[in-house]
Amino acid sequence: MKKIRVSKKNTNLQTQIKLPSSKSISNRLLMMRSLEREKLHFDNLSEAEDTYMMRLYLSFINTCADSVIPLNLDAHNAGTVFRFLTAYLSQKAGKYLLTGFERMKQRPVGKLVDALRTLGANIRYTEKENYPPLLIKGTRLVSKDIEIDAGSSSQFISALMLIAPHLPQGLRILLKGNIVSKSYINMTAELMRNFGIAVHMDDQIIEVKPGAYSIKPFRVESDWSSASFWYQMVAFLPQAEVLLPGLQKNSLQGDRFLAEVFATLGVKTEFLDNSIFISHHGKPEQQIDFDFTDAPDIVPSVMTTCAALGVKAKFRGIEHLRIKESDRIATMQEELAKIGAHIVKEEDAYHLIPGQKPSASLVFDSHGDHRLAMCLAPLALVYDEVEIINPDVVNKSYPDYWNDLTKSGVFSLTIMKDE
Asked: Using CA atoms in the order 354, 356, 360, 362, what is the torsion angle rounded to 10 degrees?
């Protein structure tokens, strides 16, 4: 198994980092563009593996729709790609087999399939009921009011919203239960409005009017989720200063919540003209308590930072992390135990209790999850050296991550031979 050794080189972190573009925004733009068969180039589109896959598969779909043999599309472990394509293919002429890696086959998709079937979709499970793979025969969908449980994945709802303008009378969606990752639903709505679609949201109801997307030039923001790892590094190093261009205070991305959370962990955020400047600013609070319902992707970074700094923390609204690229609650429990931290559930929250690092060297398993690999690597600044198993998973969202660590000047990296 491939590993990378990350070692602390020095503690003088003074750098500027060009973060990757938001793949969340990029993938939504690609869906809207493909629905209109447009070819307009978007500025600063993400180069992440997920976005590359979305671009490639949308191109395949548009050129192979008339094939008698189902087009086989492997979404690997990309939840957005799988879920968005499930909705897209259901209304696209042709036959398709949509599958993924073994972990993807463990991530339920039944709620989205049920909603699409209500609209007339022809979708069949080929292995286990409610789970990928899916055999989809594209057909003309109808407009009906639908209900969907909003407590597991906002991607189900965004997938439905994106195809809604192409339904005869649009779509009215009733959201049942507690809405998780609502910021991503808001992102979808704002992007749709930007391209000429009428979207009304009122508490638990979303209404999308029929129409065509008016595709126009658009520049994709830098990725707030990827900024979380640099916030970690600044929290670990006194006098650290990092400039991150392309991030905005009034961002479409809910992960801008980072600035508020890390303010309690000793990091100051200054909003400049289309960039942010983050710096080490005093000691962290002894205990923090936040609800991450709308910003789940930053949880691994915050957990790791708290564990390393000895901060007790309460994490609310994170149960849906169990169906991410890994079961992020279980995998964070396993990996942070290596530095003595415990994560336990009490009532409606998960409590992180820091502890003493065992004397053994630190070898972390990424569990095939890009965010685990990236949030654990900065621990080299606290413990001098760590090893990360399967480091290439960062390509999913931040392909230049390891290069950027080297460029920062505070790390040295060693690629270790496969065992």
From this structure: 30
Bin 90: left if φ > 0, else alpha if -120 < ψ < 50, else beta.
Answer: alpha
Strand boundaries in 260-384, DSSP class E? 267-272, 275-280, 287-291, 312-316, 342-346, 349-353, 362-365
154-163 and 79-90 helices cross at what angle (nearest 10)?
Answer: 30
C-alpha span between 377 and 393 (Å, rounded): 13
Domain assignments of the chain as residue spans, ordered by start: 3-20+222-416, 23-208
Question: CA torsion, points 48, 159, 185, 57, in degrees to nearest 10?
Answer: 10
CATH superfamily of 23-208: Enolpyruvate transferase domain (3.65.10.10)
Query: Taking the CA atoms of the chain, what radius of gyration do you get in angstroms?
Result: 21
Instruction: Give, in words, the CATH class of 3-20+222-416.
Output: alpha beta
Question: Taking the CB of residue 322, how many other CB atoms lie within 10 A of it?
Answer: 14
Strands 14-16 and 287-291, by their bridges, are: unpaired
One-letter identity of residue 290 = F
pLDDT score at 66: 67
Tell me the pLDDT band of 65, cut-offs 50, 70 and 90: low
Q: Is the pLDDT of residue 151 over 60?
A: yes
User: Which of 66-80, 186-200, 318-332 has maximum average pLDDT?
Assistant: 186-200
More confident residue, 407 or 151: 407
Catalytic residues: 297
CB 293 within 8 A of CB 272: no
